[in-house]
């Protein structure tokens, strides 16, 4: 069976067991603050498992794109070095929400593996949870008894809490799990060592292929467990590993999931997989990482320096570095692998083909930028190596290596490789210490102590914010959080007019009040699909009835900006072309930000055209046509655009202003005239093929115009109300440039005069030509003298010590000829010591250094101190 046939057989099997087959959720998660990426098949069902969303289908199956490169599931550094870890992988899974439980899950798993795929039963082993006396949990005898119907007792292995008790996080749903392992070793090896002794022993050919999780508990904040009202089956089977077992291979990379890509890499790099161990590692890294990078971009996550974008950038750079170091790829090449990926996976995931051009352009630009970084890093490292060898050391500082790694993105293992080639080592302890400091800074900044939910009443929040800004409500539940020593509360209401942050629109703020009490709602977030209101303190009586009131001024400003993004999207498609698609947005009361696909800078003329189209639509005062709970097919028939990287339900909301039709859950103006006006304030690049426009509307657009008029009037005043201000400014710039040239010529003349004067004062001290003097000159003059002295004393021992007092601020400059540096003198060390006599400090290079001070009376003493150092 091919990989495509194996994937389809799984979905067909569970469809025959009355499971709803659902599409993969995007790999990039946008509306869950606890996760950046989908790292397990259950992520898209998290809200159902937590009870925050209703159960739509009691039985579900799918193939989910997953990414594990952060948090506790971080396998990044293993990828490529072994044959079974991956960054992106596919997870086949089946779920039951309060329907079937252990009996069906186990029997169907066995049926699929042994009857559909016809895997050898004698090679299969299963594990069950052995229990935990510390938590008063017994062995999972129920699962063991079911398994005993299919396998002998010696193939049922007890597993510890680490391997056989699954938890969503520190709190939340959890339960025992039962893994299915397969022994893929040749018969000769199986005869020597029993496969059961290698289960969960990290043997590359005795591997877990399927995990059946039986969620039956809820973990509370105090660590205790309580039973879940609806038990959940959550199974996950690694698709790549399953292909290994079915196709009779010993490595994931030997299956047809990866072989076509490895062949393409080999042809591109003039090599062949399987000939050289180090080359093979590099090829595996690249074959794995190109999938992750491409799917992330496809799902809307561009490489960047923050959060999820930084993770993708790291993965891309790791692939580039392996190609650079082991495959001699000094130019961009990853982007050229995208067509092969589309061939391999485009049928199962058609979004790859649709976004192919964008994916290629983004990857190419990122590659080229990082290759420039590598060149810079190598130059900096060469300097560090030269300085280290000059002082006779064979180890470079871990701090220097960390600066290269952290500031310049230069990989540590490449640093180590170059050092080894130069006979040097790295102080690993210093590097690790710097890395630990950085991790602690990040951990402290993000640490949140979360209390248990205090449930006052059961129920779901009803959102009424599309129709009203005020509503009577009661508190359903609340909990306390502590971050950076500040307490605040998350509150869930029965009815709320507050829009919870989602889809680029910020959350509402306002008040929660009753007769004698008014509490400020500082923000509204969405957590596990719950609208959560943020309060600094709780009300005196949490069971009272309250009035929830949204800050109207901020909501109206936000609505104006959000509706303006829809009009801007349509205008940009009209001006630039229909290739323009939204790639992200941010909408607040103050401004709007709109990211879109376009492969070149938008010209000022194009910006003005788009702006005029938007303002025309605003003046036409087009009424809002809102379609709620529309079937997705019907919405698309209306002309609404569905964006790649977004997951839509079966029912959607459509926002329409004339010919502008979009799927959107945000809040909007009742008619476009309420936007007032739109002014674009900037246009820039976000990534290859993605541009960003920032703009303001309504009152903030008026403020912008007022400020521009004030600036224009102020400029006119400066030029005595000249009729043509632009021409007046041009003339002033030209006159200024002319004066600057004359000043530079005068300065140069002054520098040469001072140089000649100083040369006449040179004295001989212990075989060294020494110039020492105190001046009262502009520091730029002093800086200009030194290069002219350098040429006069290239071949002899020479030292210049120049003190200067300008605007009552003392400074000291020391210059040494090359022969003085070779004799062991260091201007930076000398100036640092001498400057103490004028209450100052400084430093610099071996041949030239400067220092500033606070005490002008100490300049002469500082000069003498420096001269004494050579006596």
What does this molecule look like?
It is a single chain. The protein is of the alpha+beta class and 871 residues long. It is 39% helix and 25% strand. Strands 1, 2, 3, 4, 5, 6, 7, 8 and 9 form a 9-stranded mixed beta sheet that branches. Strands 12, 13, 15, 16, 17, 19, 20, 21 and 22 form a 9-stranded antiparallel beta sheet that branches. A 6-stranded mixed beta sheet has the order 30-31-32-33-35-34, with helices on both faces. α3 (102-116) runs parallel beside α4, α9 runs antiparallel to α10 and α9 (277-298) crosses α13 (356-390). The longest helix has 36 residues, at 725-760.
Overall average residue pLDDT: 91
Radius of gyration: 34 Å
- With helices defined by DSSP (H or I, 4 residues minimum), what is the helix count? 25
Shape summary: globular
| Distance separating the two termini | 86 Å
Q: Determine the fraction of residues in helical runs and give it as a percent range.
A: 25-40%
Oligomer: single chain
DSSP strand count? 35
Low-confidence stretches: none
Please report which band the strand proportion falls in: under 5%, 5-15%, 15-25%, 25-35%, 35-45% or over 45%: 25-35%
Category by helix and strand content: alpha+beta
Profile the largest sheet.
9 strands, mixed
Notable features of this structure?
nine-stranded antiparallel β-sheet; alpha+beta; globular; 871 residues
How does the SSE layout of this entry go?
Elements: H1 3-15, E1 20-21, H2 46-49, E2 59-67, E3 88-97, H3 102-116, E4 124-129, H4 141-147, E5 156-159, H5 161-164, E6 165-167, E7 172-183, H6 187-192, E8 206-219, E9 225-238, H7 239-247, H8 259-269, H9 277-298, H10 307-326, H11 338-345, H12 351-354, H13 356-390, E10 395-396, H14 398-408, H15 412-421, E11 425-426, H16 428-446, E12 448-450, E13 454-455, E14 462-463, E15 470-473, E16 475-483, E17 486-493, E18 495-496, E19 510-514, E20 517-527, E21 530-535, E22 546-550, H17 552-576, E23 582-587, E24 592-597, H18 604-619, E25 625-631, H19 632-638, E26 651-657, E27 660-663, E28 678-687, E29 690-697, H20 698-718, H21 725-760, E30 763-765, E31 768-775, H22 779-792, E32 798-806, E33 809-816, H23 818-822, H24 827-834, E34 841-844, E35 848-852, H25 859-868
Parallel strand pairs: 1-2, 4-5, 10-11, 14-18, 31-32
Antiparallel strand pairs: 2-3, 3-9, 4-7, 6-7, 7-8, 8-9, 12-16, 13-16, 15-22, 16-17, 17-21, 19-20, 19-22, 20-21, 23-24, 24-29, 25-26, 26-27, 28-29, 30-31, 32-33, 33-35, 34-35
